[in-house]
Amino acid sequence: MIAGGSVIVSPLGTVLAGPLLDGEGILTADLDLDDIVRGKFDFDVVGRH
Description:
Blueprint: E1 6-9, E2 15-20, H1 34-42
């Protein structure tokens, strides 16, 4: 039903690496730490906005 696979997704929802579907491996990606703050503005789970 599900192919599985590893993936790295940024806080803004952009796929940075993967999916890794066949075999074993290591995924790496560079992350802009400012995207964490931007992501919190997009999805405010506390309801401040």
